[in-house]
Amino acid sequence: MLMVVGIQEGCINHALLTAQAIANDGLPLIGWVANRINPGLAHYAEIIDVLSKKLPAPLIGELPYLPRAEQRELSRYVDLDMLGNVMAIDRIPA
């Protein structure tokens, strides 16, 4: 499961609860993407730091605030190679 977190006030608790719900459903959380939805958020870097330390999956990209984002623009902000590496690791038999 790939989780996208809208970075805003209160998102840390929401992201942690969502990650727990994913785990409770027996699904792997293979990564997360930070989506900056408020360009004026004062504590953006601190929120990313806390989530990076507390979430049990790697940050694979940060989408900056883009008022009229197009799909082809978004791909340059996500490390798809990292996502592929994580998925390959999850497929290794125990």
TrEMBL record:
The protein's name in its UniProt record: Putative dithiobiotin synthetase
One of the GO BP terms on file: biotin biosynthetic process
Lineage: Bacteria, Pseudomonadati, Pseudomonadota, Gammaproteobacteria, Enterobacterales
InterPro entries reported for this sequence: DTB_synth_BioD, P-loop_NTPase
Sorted UniProt keywords: ATP-binding, Biotin biosynthesis, Cytoplasm, Ligase, Magnesium, Metal-binding, Nucleotide-binding
EC code(s) of this entry: 6.3.3.3
GO molecular function term, any single one: magnesium ion binding
One GO cellular component term noted in the UniProt record for this chain: cytosol
Name of encoding gene: bioD_2
